[in-house]
């Protein structure tokens, strides 16, 4: 699909400087721009590329004034970064604008589907499933019995959503995500082995939640594992049974959260963080990457390390970590001198 500079300026409420009929059909970085591509300039560090870019159209801030001759057509807007983000969103909506039921696919007779949905080939939708309006389920997806999916939600290829799961409106479930698998529940038996504890609960995902590729969210043993409104989960995260994550919390890749832990609202958790089970983490907490959390965390704490301590204490301690060999040598020298 092609767009002219004039059409893009209309979408962004911007002004064209150059050829209003310049056409683009793809997006690019400014340093990798080619004929027929649309790019943007927001960071001053990349300003020199605008004089060499081969992109047909470049979105810039209204304050930008070229100091040399340029070949690219400009679209001037109040905020070039925000405007390009808007174009990306528009581009995605066009690219993903599929409707209809592809074959072969299976939809149980007891399932109900809203208007304007898309179901890709080789997908399975089980008994008593309820799917809202404008939902898109891409090929090779599995939707288990009694699952509910709200309006405008997207389930990408290969996602597996187990039975009884409830997913809200405007969510994104990326490829390979598994929602509602059994929690890790086993009880030791008299023979030295383990008996599986049935996991009879479900997963509830509220509105505007993004679940990254290959992220797993286990069903509760009893009750629900709950992901609150606005949560953003990166790829390859493990969320165990009965965990609850508060509104607008963001969690980076490879983080693992053990069972029954409660995480508050507006938290920011870095990559490869390990969080022990049955603890409470407050609101507005920030956890640096590769930290280990094994205790209750109060509101507004900033933590780093394993076991994690406050960031200020960690930074003070790190000075000594680096000098540890020297400190040990000094202590040994003192001990030696003491006995001489």
Please, could you describe this protein's structure?
The protein has 340 residues and is an alpha/beta fold. The protein folds into 2 domains: 3-95, 3-Layer(aba) Sandwich (Udp-n-acetylmuramoylalanyl-d-glutamate--2,6- Diaminopimelate Ligase, Chain: A, domain 1); 100-314, UDP N-Acetylglucosamine Acyltransferase, domain 1, CATH 2.160.10.10. Helix content is 15%, strand content 29%. The protein has 4 helices and 40 strands. The strands form 6 sheets. A 12-stranded mixed sheet has the order 8-11-14-17-20-25-28-31-34-37-39-40. It has a 10-stranded parallel sheet with strand order 9-12-15-18-21-26-29-32-35-38, with no helix packed on it. Strands 10-13-16-19-24-27-30-33-36 form a 9-stranded parallel sheet, with no helix packed on it. A hairpin with a 4-residue loop joins strand 39 and strand 40. Pfam families: Hexapep (PF00132), LpxD (PF04613). This is UDP-3-O-acylglucosamine N-acyltransferase. Residues 21-89 form the UDP-3-O-[3-hydroxymyristoyl] glucosamine N-acyltransferase non-repeat region domain. InterPro entries: Hexapep (IPR001451), LpxD (IPR007691), Trimer_LpxA-like_sf (IPR011004), UDP_GlcNAc_AcTrfase_non-rep (IPR020573).
Key features of this structure:
340 residues; Udp-n-acetylmuramoylalanyl-d-glutamate--2,6- Diaminopimelate Ligase, Chain: A, domain 1; 4 helices; alpha/beta; ten-stranded parallel β-sheet; 40 strands; 2 domains; twelve-stranded mixed β-sheet; UDP N-Acetylglucosamine Acyltransferase, domain 1; 29% strand
């Amino acid at each position: 699909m092609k767009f002219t500079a004039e059409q893009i300026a209309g979408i962004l409420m911007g002004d064209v400087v150059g050829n209003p009929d310049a056409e683009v059909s793809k997006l690019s970085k400014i340093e990798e721009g080619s004929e027929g591509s649309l790019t943007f300039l927001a960071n001053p560090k990349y300003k020199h590329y605008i004089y060499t870019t081969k992109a047909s159209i470049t979105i810039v801030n209204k304050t930008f004034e070229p100091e040399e001759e340029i070949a690219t057509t400009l679209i001037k807007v109040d905020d070039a970064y925000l405007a390009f983000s808007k174009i990306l969103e528009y581009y995605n909506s066009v690219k993903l604008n599929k409707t209809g039921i592809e074959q072969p696919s299976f939809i149980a007779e007891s399932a109900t589907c809203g208007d304007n949905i898309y179901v890709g080939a080789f997908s399975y939708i089980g008994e008593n499933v309820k799917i809202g309006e404008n939902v898109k389920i891409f090929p090779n997806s599995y939707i288990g019995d009694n699952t509910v999916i709200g309006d405008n939600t997207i389930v990408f290829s290969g996602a597996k959503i187990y039975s009884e799961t409830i997913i809200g409106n405007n969510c994104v479930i990326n490829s390979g995500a598994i929602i509602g698998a059994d929690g890790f529940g086993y009880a030791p038996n008299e023979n030295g082995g383990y008996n599986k504890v049935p996991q009879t609960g479900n997963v509830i995902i509220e509105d505007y939640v993004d679940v990254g590729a290959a992220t797993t969210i286990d069903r509760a043993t009893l009750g629900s594992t709950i992901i609150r409104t606005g949560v953003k989960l990166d790829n390859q995260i493990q969320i165990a049974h009965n965990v609850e994550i508060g509104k607008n919390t963001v969690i980076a890749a490879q983080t693992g959260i053990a069972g029954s832990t409660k995480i508050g609202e507006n938290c920011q958790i870095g990559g490869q963080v390990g969080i022990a089970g049955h603890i409470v983490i407050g609101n507005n907490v920030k956890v640096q990457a590769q930290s280990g959390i094994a205790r209750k965390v109060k509101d507004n704490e900033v933590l780093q390390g394993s076991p994690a301590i406050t960031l200020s204490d960690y930074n003070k301690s790190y000075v000594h970590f680096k000098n540890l060999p020297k400190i040990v040598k000094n202590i040994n020298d003192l001990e030696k001198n003491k006995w001489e």
